[in-house]
Design goal:
It is built from 6 helices and 17 strands. The protein has 282 residues and is α+β, with helices and mostly antiparallel strands. It has an 8-stranded mixed β-barrel with strand order 1-4-3-2-6-8-9-5.
């Protein structure tokens, strides 16, 4: 039986100053949704929406309310803190598929946020399912079902001046990539997990998750600096699909955003330009 997971739904970037982060990602050429405030929590976000996935910039607006570990994460750094998977089926079917693989999905839990629009406030709603940390080692993750998708995908939010079309994957740094083979074979199926001397690649729908050690990452990309103190495990980079390398490079050049051209053809913006997130445009 399939595991019921369709791909990556979104990635979460923890930021210390939400408004500064919004301005920074707009400079990088992204269109952001209006700010949303999580109901019953002290957090708010801006989202960078694509047709089937997105990036969430998450910050604290009330430190006295429930923060769901964001405050602890931000003590150490800003950056990519979690990935959410998209379900391929209703959550009861997804849970049954995961249980059939001898995994331990949680019961669904609700999440909502208040989004202020020119015509009035709306409340996008979601249902979340988690797996124990040992069943997705090296990756803080959960499964996110959209109950009101029409509220989050307005055409004007999907057009980005830098030419980005959507997510294609993430790079996760771990202490031992080989140790991940068995649990991710179990979760996604052995045909979806490939390995080389340096990388474990997990294919999740049209997305990929690349696990490697910090040393192997530096060997693959010697021009890129991840920083000697990057905490392991951690998501170091996000990959974006672009429509035209020339359009993206031209935009970044005009906005004086530094980037590297690496041999495989990607343009890479250093983490210091994007709240601790290295950006691959491919």
């Amino acid at each position: 039986m399939d595991n019921g997971i369709a791909g990556i739904d979104h990635v979460i970037v923890g930021v210390r100053d939400l408004e500064s982060a919004r301005r920074g990602w707009e400079r990088l050429g992204f269109t952001l949704s209006p700010r949303g405030r999580h109901i019953g929590q002290g957090t708010a976000n801006y989202c960078i929406m694509f047709p089937s996935d997105y990036v969430e910039l998450l910050g604290i607006v009330d430190p006295n309310d429930f923060l769901h570990r964001l405050d602890a994460f931000l003590v150490g750094r800003e950056g990519l803190m979690a990935a959410a998977f998209a379900p391929a089926a209703p959550l009861d079917e997804l849970r049954a598929a995961l249980l059939s693989r001898r995994l331990h999905p949680s019961e669904p839990r609700p999440l909502g946020r208040r989004l202020e629009l020119p015509e009035g406030a709306v409340e996008p709603r979601f249902s979340l399912v988690s797996l124990p940390a040992e069943e997705t080692p090296g990756l803080d993750s959960f499964i996110c079902a959209h109950l009101t998708p029409e509220l989050m995908r307005r055409p004007e939010w999907l057009d980005h001046p830098n030419g980005v079309l959507g997510l294609s994957g993430i790079h996760v740094l771990v202490e031992n990539a080989a140790a991940l083979l068995a649990p991710y074979d179990r979760l996604f199926g052995i045909q979806q997990v490939t390995t080389t001397d340096a990388v474990v690649c997990v294919h999740v729908g049209r997305h990929r998750i690349l696990f490697s050690t910090a040393d192997d990452f530096s060997t693959m990309y010697p021009k890129l600096d991840i920083g000697a103190d990057f905490p392991l495990p951690g998501i170091a980079a996000v990959e974006f699909e672009i429509g035209s390398r020339e359009i993206t490079a031209g935009y970044l050049t005009r906005r004086q955003v530094p980037f590297e051209e690496i041999p495989e053809g990607s343009l890479v913006v250093p983490a210091r330009e994007a709240n601790g997130v290295m950006l691959f445009f491919s």
